Amino acid sequence: MRIITGIYKGRHFDVPRTFKARPTTDFAKENIFNVLGGYLDFDGITALDLFAGTGSISLEMLSRGSAQVISVEADRDHARFIAQCMKKIGADNNLLIRGDVFRFLKSCHQQFNLIFADPPYALEQLTTLPDLIFEHDLLVPEGIFVLEHGKDHSFESHPHFIDHRHYGSVNFSLFR
Questions:
Q1: What per-residue confidence (pLDDT) applies to 20?
Q2: β pairing state of 161-167 and 170-175
Q3: Which GO terms describe its biological process (predicted)?
């Protein structure tokens, strides 16, 4: 896993083979971040990474200038790996929360410029995520929510849907 661009550009992290989480491919990550660059300036934003997995997205957001990134990951080993990666780059503006994403969303009272969710594609509640984000008012005005998902889901009829991108088998739906 590597950081594509920004202040930590080119840094590599070896993801343990035992991990269930699959980091977003470099190709898909680079492309979706290029798309996001057209919607927002990463410099100084507050971001939320749900189902943080390996921390790849959190690291990329920090590298591109996010002032604060909150990473939510339930798995103990994955959370430990994210903490180690953050320590390696010396990032002190990442708040790692080890816990259930749905519980976090229901109790969160902060708003974010960018929310990125990369849940397991087979997650039963995957389709409820856009509604939860907007019901709990977690985005600032003009904020963006990105949901990574498999090809079996379409969110184009959602009232906050603005864009869909796919790179190979990776799909991203964007909401505002």
A1: 77
A2: antiparallel
A3: rRNA methylation
